[in-house]
Specification:
It is built from seven helices and eleven strands. By secondary structure, the chain is α/β, with parallel strands linked by helices. A hairpin with a 4-residue loop joins β10 and β11. α5 packs antiparallel against α7. The longest helix has 30 residues. The chain is globular.
């Protein structure tokens, strides 16, 4: 059976250099995968950025494309390099020089979901790992680079806004001004992945909606921000993490009653972020 790797919603007319993407909200769980998993269907979803694709579904109306993965993160993590293979999970993989992500079970084919719970009962074959990368990882990343190339060709620069969600407990001890927990964490790999002008404008868009924003702590961005963030080539990548506690019950994975109100709030933010990549608003294209 053929699984689609991603969905792409294009705007009627592309009016901004900004590209939005959600690599972790996929929920097409293959039956064979669920059959061999050691976790039940609910627990296996705990690493999913549930509903992030729905929260940002209005992106195309802002003139930007929206790319969303269909493969779930527990099956394949698009925010990892394809060579981040875990020897503790995949037969025939040589142990890599120490990579903390892979060592903790969070390679490109994850071994665990949140709180270190193992996904599988045994190992999987190298052939299976390569098949997932070929079928799901490559098409997603090829499409993402194509969208950014289109942006650079048309607008002189590309801006990737990579949309994620974080467990509420991940920010329990992170304080923003006045010791308040952040609602949003923006990751630009401490300035390496995007121009500060762009990051400041994205931060201002969230702040104007009344949301508290922190930068790079505890999430600075992983493979996607690192790989696509090339400010010297006019290609910028910014990771956005939303506190899941704002719109869902993390235990039951149900949407909160004010989900639609939060989505409406985000739609104003999206309009402002899209504005950053409009031809009439681009001081940084000449950088």
């Amino acid at each position: 059976m053929h699984h689609r790797a991603f969905d792409l919603e294009r705007p009627r007319r592309r009016t901004t250099a900004v590209v939005f993407a959600s690599p972790h909200s996929g929920r097409d769980y293959p039956d064979t995968f669920l059959k061999h998993a050691a976790l039940d269907a609910q627990a296996i979803r705990s690493s999913e950025d549930a509903y992030v694709d729905q929260l940002f579904s209005m992106v195309p109306q802002s003139g930007a494309p929206f790319l969303t993965a269909r493969a779930p993160r527990a099956f394949l993590d698009l925010n990892r390099a394809p060579e981040e293979l875990d020897s503790a999970l995949i037969e025939g993989v040589r142990r890599q020089s120490h990579n903390p992500r892979v060592a903790s079970g969070l390679g490109v084919i994850p071994r665990v979901v949140s709180n270190g719970r193992p996904i599988y009962r045994g190992k999987i074959s190298l052939e299976e790992a390569h098949s997932r990368i070929t079928t799901f990882w490559r098409p997603y990343h090829d499409q993402l680079q194509t969208l950014l190339d289109e942006s650079r060709n048309r607008f002189g620069l590309g801006i990737l806004v990579d949309c994620h969600s974080m467990p509420h407990e991940a920010i329990e001890h992170v304080g923003v001004g006045g010791g308040h927990r952040p609602d949003i964490v923006i990751g630009d790999r401490f300035g390496a992945a995007a121009s500060s002008i762009i990051v400041e404008q994205i931060e201002a868009a969230f702040a104007s909606a009344g949301l508290r924003v922190a930068r790079n702590m505890p999430f600075a961005g992983a493979y996607i921000a690192q790989h696509y963030g090339r400010p010297s080539k006019n290609q910028h990548a910014v990771q956005i993490e939303l506190d899941r506690g704002l719109y869902m019950n993390e235990r039951t994975l149900e949407r909160k009653s004010d989900f639609d109100a939060f989505k409406q709030l985000l739609s104003d933010v999206v309009v402002q972020i899209a504005q950053i990549g409009r031809a009439d608003n681009m001081p940084m294209a000449a950088e």
